[in-house]
């Protein structure tokens, strides 16, 4: 357990973007919150009354869902982007610096090394980013009750328990998104052990695999496959029913995606046994 914590701490220290980007977003949202709270004319311009026929409760629920989905989508996208830039780096960095030989001298297996890096990219990064969702919901809750309830129809943050529930729901959605990102993460880590610019190589390879069959044979199957798989983690975060999005992607595509992930896991372990 101590070795796992030490390895996670190492990843944390070597990847400052993991906390710098969320911190920057938090500062921006805090400044926006303070500006709205202290600007009474702006509040009157933003807060409006509407007359319409229909069920007001249904309107409130729909609008509140859209705002919560927007917050979750932005934060989830930030988490995915941070993970995307992280996975091609750790194993390549150890090889380029020569520190791979040091870690091999430690009582840490290759499997544990890979699992720690996957844990950091798929669990620690989303956990750090999830604080943005919690703080945003908390600010909305404060804003709602500091403006004489003028925003009652806009937000679901009626109580602190709602803030906690939204945060827990986001964590569950990010866990599902992490599972869906696993094959991509393994592929990026495998490629990073053999090339100097793994992310560039991956982008070129994906672009070629998507458009060459269309240009040569008019076949759109690979393009549809990549589109479905790449957007699936984000859909799992913002969709009303995340599990339904997996079914809509097609079990055949999911099976192929999972198989590619297993091949990438095997390649990772094979490549890690060689220095080059």
Describe the overall structure:
The chain is mostly helical. 81% of the residues lie in helices and 0% in strands. The protein has twelve helices and no strands. The protein has helices spanning 2-14, 17-38, 40-46, 56-86, 90-97, 100-105, 110-145, 160-192, 198-217, 221-238, 242-249, 251-271. α1 (2-14) crosses α7, α2 (17-38) packs parallel to α7 (110-145) and α11 crosses α12 (251-271). The longest helix has 36 residues, at 110-145. The protein is globular. It starts with a helix and ends in a 5-residue tail after the last helix. Mean pLDDT is 80; it is low at 48-63.
Keywords:
276 residues; mainly alpha; 81% helix
Describe the protein's topology.
Elements: H1 2-14, H2 17-38, H3 40-46, H4 56-86, H5 90-97, H6 100-105, H7 110-145, H8 160-192, H9 198-217, H10 221-238, H11 242-249, H12 251-271
* Strand/helix succession: HHHHHHHHHHHH
Shape: globular
Helix content: over 70%
Task: Using the CA coordinates, give the radius of gyration.
Answer: 22 Å
Whole-Å distance between the termini? 29 Å
Instruction: Describe the largest sheet.
Output: none
């Amino acid at each position: 357990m101590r070795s796992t914590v030490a390895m996670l701490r190492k990843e944390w220290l070597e990847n400052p973007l993991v906390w710098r980007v969320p911190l920057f977003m938090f500062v921006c949202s805090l400044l926006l919150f303070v500006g709205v709270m202290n600007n009474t004319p702006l509040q009157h311009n933003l807060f409006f009354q509407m007359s319409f026929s229909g069920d007001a409760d249904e309107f409130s629920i729909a609008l509140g869902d859209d705002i919560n989905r927007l917050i979750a989508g932005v934060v989830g996208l930030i988490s995915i982007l941070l993970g995307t830039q992280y996975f091609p780096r750790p194993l390549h960095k150890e090889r380029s610096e020569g520190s791979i030989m040091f870690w091999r001298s430690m009582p840490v297996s290759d499997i544990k090394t890979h699992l720690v890096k996957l844990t950091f990219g798929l669990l620690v990064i989303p956990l750090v980013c999830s604080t943005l969702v919690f703080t945003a919901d908390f600010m909305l809750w404060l804003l709602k009750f500091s403006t004489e309830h003028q925003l009652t129809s806009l937000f679901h943050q009626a109580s602190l328990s709602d803030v906690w529930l939204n945060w827990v729901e986001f964590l569950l959605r990010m866990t599902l998104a992490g599972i869906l990102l696993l094959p991509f993460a393994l592929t990026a880590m495998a490629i990073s052990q053999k090339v100097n610019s793994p992310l560039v190589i991956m982008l070129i390879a994906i672009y070629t695999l998507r458009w060459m069959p269309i240009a040569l044979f008019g076949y759109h199957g690979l393009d549809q496959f990549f589109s479905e798989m790449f957007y699936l983690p984000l859909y799992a975060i913002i969709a009303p029913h995340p599990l339904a999005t997996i079914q809509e992607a097609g079990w055949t595509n999911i099976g192929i995606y999972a198989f590619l992930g297993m091949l990438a896991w095997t390649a990772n372990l094979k490549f890690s046994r060689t220095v080059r």
